Structures are given as C-alpha cells and as structure tokens.
Amino acid sequence: MPLQEKQLDPALLDAVDVFGGLDPSGKDEALAAAHWRKLETGERAFEQDQEADAFYVLSAGRLKVTQVTPEGQEIIIRYIGPKEMFGCVAVCGGLTYPGTATAVTDSWALGWTRATIGALAQTYPGIALNAMRTMGGRLQDTQSRLREMQTERVERRIAHGIARLVAQAGRRVEGGILIDFPVSRQDIAELTGTTLHTVSRTLSAWQERGVVELGRQKLTVRDPHALVVIAEDLPLKE
C-alpha cells in the first residue's frame, strides 16, 4: 500500500530525547527546519559507512539497523520504533553511519540535514548533549548484547532477543503477545548472533512446548513466563 501524505504533529518532539529541555520556541524552530522522508518497505534510509548527512526521528513504521562485520556476517544492531531517533551521529558532524537503516514496514521519518541540526545545536547546546547521551546508552546496550553472545548459551540469547522485541513492539492478542511487525527466523538469527538452523530448531521446540507460536514472518509469545525462565536460566518449577 502506498504511503499517504503525512501531517506534521507538533507533539512528535515531546517524547524525543534529543530535544529534551527545549522550550516551545526552540521546538517550533526545530520543526520549521525539518523535512519529511517516506520510506517504503525494504528501502534504506542510509547505509553503513556512508557520510552521516542527516538525523531522523521516526514518526510511523519500523526500521532495523544492521551492521556487516569484518568477517562479512550481517547482524541486527537494533530495531527503531515510532518517536525513536536514528542517525544520531549526524548531530556530532564529520562521522559516518555505523550501520544500515532499512524500513521493515512503510515508514515516515522527520529529518534534519547535518548542517541544519548542527545550526540548531549551536543555538541550543542541549541537543548535542542529549544526542551523546543517547549514543552512550545505545553503546551500553550493544556491549551488553555482545557480552551475552560471548558468555550465554544460544537458547538464552534467543530468549533475550525475543524478550527485547516483545518489550519494544509487543501487542496483546488472544492467547499471547504478538510482535507487531514482520520478523523472520533469519532476523532473529542476525539479532542474536547465531544461525538460521539453530533458531529454527529452537523455535520449533518452543512451539511444541507452547512457549511461542510461529507464523509467516510472525511470532507470538504464548507463555511469557516460560520465555523469562529460559532467558534468565531460572529453575523450572515442579
């Protein structure tokens, strides 16, 4: 379905960390300097190692940010949902994007060129400070995931990955919690640093136990408690 024309919602910036602390006139100035960008499913907002020439806030839809390792393996760094920022390095200037951002569903993003966001940051220094805090928090999250990959058995890693997706985009449906955007077994493999074969085998076993229900690019967690037990390696109750 083609994307429809997007109307600007002035409240969009209220929940965006990088604009935290801005007074109403500052937010008005930021909105006036922004431009809309629509992304069809599968379209890339930017690519890894490309010059960071724009910063974005997602208004609607869902994106995934991926990286290709020196060994050539593609991994999913994170998913971006509505009111989240991406391309934050553009605020700092002179950097390249560390990953590739691809639309998982038809999406709308509000964007600022590097020159524009840089000018705003000069007028409102809190923008740059907030951007650095956000990047620091995401770096900590990435380090935690790397630690999981190095120290946890694969079943726990997969459970942690699915739990993150549920926390970010879980929607209650009859009999469970549906991850509310298309997610494939290959996506989960790339998210948890394992293989498609291992993910398929693990999810099939969990489906037999009633922990999850699998569909075509759909995943429903039927027993959230059981998922937590696996993720945290808790003892099973008799």
From TrEMBL:
GO terms for cellular component: cytosol. It comes from the Bacteria. SMART domains: cNMP (SM00100), HTH_CRP (SM00419). Keywords: DNA-binding, Transcription, Transcription regulation. It holds the Pfam family cNMP_binding. GO terms for molecular function: DNA binding; DNA-binding transcription factor activity. InterPro entries: cNMP-bd_dom (IPR000595), cNMP-bd_dom_sf (IPR018490), Env_Response_Regulators (IPR050397), HTH_CRP (IPR012318), RmlC-like_jellyroll (IPR014710), WH-like_DNA-bd_sf (IPR036388), WH_DNA-bd_sf (IPR036390). Residues 18-105 form the Cyclic nucleotide-binding domain. Residues 152-225 form the HTH crp-type domain. CDD domains: CAP_ED, HTH_CRP. This is Transcriptional regulator, Crp/Fnr family.
